[in-house]
Amino acid sequence: MHTEPGIICAVFAAVVISAGCLSAIFPDPLPEPTITATPTPIPTPESPVVTVPVAQLALQSSDLPSDYILRDRSDITYLEVNQISHDLGWRAGYAVAYYRINREKYDVTELRQTIALYSLANMNTVYNIANDAVASGGTGATTIYELPCPNVGDRTVAYRIANNQSAFTTYTIVFVKKNACEELTMEGTTTDFETLKGLAQVAADKIR
User: Fold this and answer.
1) How far apart are CA 29 and CA 79, in angstroms?
2) Residues sharing a CB contact under 8 Å with residue 206, sequence separation 6 or more, in sequence order
């Protein structure tokens, strides 16, 4: 009976020692790291209208084949625009022209680009008028054919105008994107519709 307290003390001491050893082998878990939530960026909505100066939409010499030379480029003024365009909310315009010439081969080709900005609400009407102006512009000396053309904007149409009295051929692409309406025309003795389609895509990509 006198040995029970001693046994109890010995057992208690063994438990304490064991707890110390276990603590050394299995230390307290490290505190969990604090996770800071990164806010999800909200994309800025794209503007439905052109946000750059109209002159920046014009094709540059570096966009064209190297044998094309700048002939003219300029803003289009308010007084140069007809009343129908004013009624449709015409805001700004720009025109640029390039040419390629080879006197030895009697080769002359011109490329023109015309850009106009309008009220966004009227773009369907603007497109239809621009399309009709090309499609109905034939005479007895010319024949107009609508050509397949991939969309380079919101709406696109392309034509070949064959001159029945000469070797000249004209290609025209009309497209609208946002509140811009553009017309690209290539005409002369050596024309290339594939090149014109590529330039139309370059022009459309400049609209932002």
Assistant:
1) 80
2) 52, 56, 57, 58
Length of the chain: 208
Residue 175 structure tokens: 């497209």
Structure confidence by residue, pLDDT tens digits, 101-155: 987 878 899 999 999 999 999 999 999 999 999 999 877 789 999 999 999 999 9
Give the whole-angstrom CA distance, residue 88 versus residue 90.
6
Structure tokens at 160: 């070949």
Q: Structure tokens of 55?
A: 């002159």
pLDDT at 9: 41
d(CA 186, CA 165): 18
Q: Which H or E run contains 117?
A: strand 107-117
Structure tokens at 208: 């932002």
What does the domain layout of the chain look like in residue ranges?
54-205
Using CA atoms, how far apart are residues 90 and 120, in angstroms rounded to an integer? 10
Q: Tell whether the model's pLDDT for residue 12 goes beyond 90.
A: no
**Top-tier CATH class for 54-205:** alpha beta
Q: Tell me: pLDDT of 196 over 90.
A: yes
Query: From CA 66, how far away is CA 197, in angstroms rounded?
Result: 17
Strand ordering across the sheet containing 107-117: 69-76, 92-102, 107-117, 180-188, 169-177, 155-163, 142-147
